[in-house]
Amino acid sequence: SLNGFDHYMLKEIYEQPESIRNAMRGRLDDQDATAVFGGLNLTPQQLRSVERIVLTGCGTSWHSALVGEYLIEELARIPVSVEYASELRYRNPPMENNTLVFGITQSGETADTLAALRETKRKGHRTLAICNVVASSIAQAADGGVYLHAGPEIGVASTKAYTSQCCVLAMLALYFGRTRHMSYEGGKRLIEELRRLPAAVQQALTTDEQVRDVAKKYCNATNFLYLGRQYNFPTALEGALKLKEISYIHAEGYPAAEMKHGPIALVDKDTPSLFIVPRGTTHDKVMANMEEVKARGGPIIAVASHDDPHIEAIADDVIRVPSVQEFLQPIVTVVPLQLLSYHIALLRGCDVDKPRNLAKSVTVE
Ligand code: F6R
């Protein structure tokens, strides 16, 4: 049921503190400062011998794979490649013997993801699923995997499944990291950061009113740019996809620094740029990109850290989110972007739970 919410999408956005908690329940091991998973079905030897990880999926699940790439490479130092399932299934790339493949999927029924996993499994690679729907086709086809435990996602636009996927990938990075170079102390710190996430997401939800004002201001735009770097480059892609699919506004996501290689030509007074610019390694560089957009007369919306002192000087609208470690930021910064697409879609009279031309699970290729 809708539980008092107007739409499933909004209800599911608001469920995220709880769905993230459920993704972590029973999986954080303080004793050994690592994560534990019941269903990976990997022996310690198999785990140790993994030389490459392939993450594959479609749409929003492919975006969480991009977050996973950054997480696993940084925290576990295992090379990762991210593949669109629809491309992987026909591309036939060479894969080393000790390659571990993860199919990421909310529904567990996406035809391309299923086919990509069957193909890699047939070639003898260990093939696991990160999946929400229990006993779905992909969950059954895989050698093992991790369930999201996010509860049913009814809105066609994926919201809580995405943040849970990112959370599971962070725990996998911790798990792989702790079998390699990551220290006990490092593992401990990561666990503490993960435990702070539900409260941070709760806090990010309090931007709702303010996001609605931003939505009113820009709901008639026909083009939007979403820009972010590093861990928030996938956030830019995801924000743009949410806006496209439920508001039917053309939006593009880019790594912020790529802007000057072409997309900046789109900037004018009617094209808002949304920058995801929390504190972190590339903060100042992204601020410089914002200056470039401002100098060309483009309106700027910034999703920034709660205590950023300089942001108002450049951005027209600032949405402030709590600070978390850089590698967990995408789980927090995506929340106002989900809300923005929701409010813009409502203002434009779109059916947010059932956008035109889309289905909840794509069971044809
Ligand atoms: C976007 C969206 C789609 C799905 C994609 C994969 O909001 O929902 O892009 O993410 O169709 O679906 P799953 O995760 O069920 O494999």
From TrEMBL:
Enzyme class, top EC level, equals transferase
Subcellular location(s): the record lists: Cytoplasm
- Gene of origin? glmS
Q: Where is the SIS domain?
A: 43-182, 214-355
Q: Which domain of life is it from?
A: Bacteria
Task: Name any GO cellular component annotation.
Answer: cytosol
- Transferase among the record's keywords? yes
Parent-protein start and end of this portion = 254 to 618 of 618
Q: Which reaction does it catalyse?
A: D-fructose 6-phosphate + L-glutamine = D-glucosamine 6-phosphate + L-glutamate
Q: What is this protein called?
A: Glutamine--fructose-6-phosphate aminotransferase [isomerizing]
* UniProt KW Calcium keyword: no
Q: What does this protein do?
A: Catalyzes the first step in hexosamine metabolism, converting fructose-6P into glucosamine-6P using glutamine as a nitrogen source.
Report the EC number(s), separated by commas if there are several. 2.6.1.16
GO terms classed as biological process? carbohydrate metabolic process; fructose 6-phosphate metabolic process; protein N-linked glycosylation; UDP-N-acetylglucosamine metabolic process
Keyword terms of this UniProt record: Aminotransferase, Cytoplasm, Glutamine amidotransferase, Repeat, Transferase
Q: Which residues form the active site?
A: K360
Relate the assembly described in the record.
Answer: Homodimer.
Under the GO molecular function aspect, what terms does this record hold?
carbohydrate derivative binding; glutamine-fructose-6-phosphate transaminase (isomerizing) activity
